[in-house]
Amino acid sequence: MAAGTAAGTALGMAVLTWGAAAFDAALGAGRRSWRAAAVAPFREGARLVVQQRRRTDRADVLLTRAGVVALPAAALLAAVVLPVGGAPVLDLGAGVVWFNAMEVCVWGALWLVGWGGNAVWPLVGGYRFLAQGLAYELPHMFVLITAGVGAGSLRFADLVAAQRGLWFVVWMPVAFVVYLVSAVAMAFWGPMGQPVGRDVCGGVPGELGGPDRLVFLAGRHALLVVAAAGAVPLFLGGTAGPVLPGWVWGPVKTAAVLAVLVLAGHRLPVVRMDRFVQFAWVVLIPATLVQLLVVAVAVLP
């Protein structure tokens, strides 16, 4: 049973990651047809597999590849506690804590890639992500705590059970919006894409080529998938829904949130890190604290 659940989670992650990459290609330059967009991830993957690896002078190859591999690994490890299609692979009592810990591993992964290349622009991108992480992580943690307080538990199954009468998104709207902001920041996507910005020649993965770049890009899309999947048990009632069975509703909700995140990457401008840091401390953190206070008062016996 556990092996089947793990295989299903991995397969679901792979399908949704392909879907995110295909939707991104459909919205990208040239406005490709849906048929061309569907095969675009496979074409890009085939091109990168046969491409020669790029290496700068005196690069630390071990650190770089460790960071590259850690990116999709962190996404997959975060997914094992999410009950998207039913029971999770690991039903941990502190599943929310595990989920957040795997997200923080992304910090180390990007820093290793940025540092290991022994080049200026990847290092600048790494520093940008650290600044971004310091700005989004605190409100992100408050959001997770708010959902945990509302359910009285840090176990994802308990969070889903607590939403049988009313989804958390209805009476925690601020927390939900802040979660979506932190989701794109975690995947350094769209408006939070300065760590891989063109103004720094591609930033963190700027010196990556071949299979290394393929794994890095796949990991980035997988992080976006995990962030979208996390919103389902946290705020959208998990697998609950009318008519369709629960194992269908989970992936459908995940795909809907994922589509919003991918679309935001093409519709919203990139935010400067200094302004985002100021916005996080002046707006996001106070807003999440007020939301946490309201929820705490509401659930008091």
In short:
71% of the residues lie in helices and 0% in strands. It is an all-alpha fold. Helix 3 runs antiparallel to helix 4 (95-116).
Query: Strand fraction band?
Result: under 5%
Share of helical residues: over 70%
| CA-based shape | globular
Spell out the helices and strands N to C: HHHHHHHHHHH
Quick check: average pLDDT? 88
Termini separation: 39 Å
- Record field, number of beta strands: 0
Would you tell me the structural class of the helices and strands?
mainly alpha
Biggest sheet, open or closed, and with what strands and sense? Answer: none
Number of helices: 11
> Uncertain regions: pLDDT < 50 for 5+ in a row?
none
Rounded to the nearest angstrom, the radius of gyration is 19 Å
Give a written overview of the molecule.
Helix 5 packs antiparallel against helix 8. 71% of the residues lie in helices and 0% in strands. The protein is globular, with a radius of gyration of 19 Å. It is mostly helical and 301 residues long. The chain is built from 11 helices and no strands.
Present the secondary structure layout.
Blueprint: H1 2-27, H2 34-50, H3 61-79, H4 95-116, H5 120-151, H6 156-161, H7 168-171, H8 173-186, H9 211-235, H10 246-267, H11 273-299
Helix pairs in contact: 1-2, 1-9, 1-10, 2-9, 3-4, 3-9, 4-5, 5-8, 5-11, 8-9, 9-10
